[in-house]
Amino acid sequence: MSHVPAPAAPAADSPVEPARDPRDEAPQFVLPLVVRIERGAPPARTDALETAARAVLTLLGDERAHGDGEWAEAVRDWEDARIRKVVRRARGAEWRRAEALPGITVHGASAEVRVFPPIPLDGWPKDLAKLQVSGTELDDPEPPAPADPADRPVLWLNPDLEMSAGKAMAQAGHGAQLAWWALPDTARTAWRDAGFPLSVRTAAPAAWPRLTTSGLPVVRDAGFTEIAPGSCTVVAEHPALR
């Protein structure tokens, strides 16, 4: 192996530019997700977050996203750049048009989320581009039951951040993806075969510092929308990562 000399140190009076992240040099792609929000029958917030996370995992585990699959190249290009996800909402005819595009619809108890293969940042299909990002304000009719990470994976949300449901759905998807990457193949297969069970819950304020320093996967947001760059949004606690 040939030796590559280290770069010379800058002069004391020269400005030092921050190191560029190679992911920023690659073409940028985005993973679109569309949540169905019918007028008068919106899904519960927590169920929508959990369904979005499972939708991301379902696409990552799909055979079309691997090897010579029809979505594999798009997934590789997306993973080589910033891992962007954008959640939009649809109802009625909008939802039916979205379902006609290549993708996967994942159902929760009250939520429906369709995930699509990654697309260029400026290459949205017209039937998705016209959908709105705002307006994904959802509520839980009842507080969600406590979650036990020993029983199923839990994606813990930062208790100090306020996020719209759409933003939180994308962050939950990021957390699920980081957990997927961190797992050994046997654990990935077991999780996929079980249907990707998981819970999304807001962490107790006293537990959050411990979670973020536990060595578990942590999502740090790029700060494109709603929250400050570098904010820790989600910690992914999977039993196989303990």
Question: Could you walk me through the main structural features you see in this protein, from its secondary elements to its overall organization?
Answer:
By secondary structure, the protein is an alpha+beta fold. 31% of the residues lie in helices and 17% in strands. The protein is built from 8 helices and 9 strands. The strands form 2 sheets. Strands 1, 2, 3, 4 and 5 form a 5-stranded mixed β-sheet that branches. Helix 2 packs parallel to helix 6. The chain is globular and about 45 Å long.
How would the blueprint of this fold be written?
Layout lengths: L21 H4 L3 E8 L8 H17 L10 H9 L3 E7 L1 H8 L4 E4 L4 E4 L3 E2 L5 H4 L24 E4 L7 H18 L2 H9 L5 E4 L5 H5 L5 E3 L11 E6 L5
Parallel strand pairs: 1-2, 6-7
Antiparallel strand pairs: 1-4, 1-5, 3-4, 6-9, 8-9
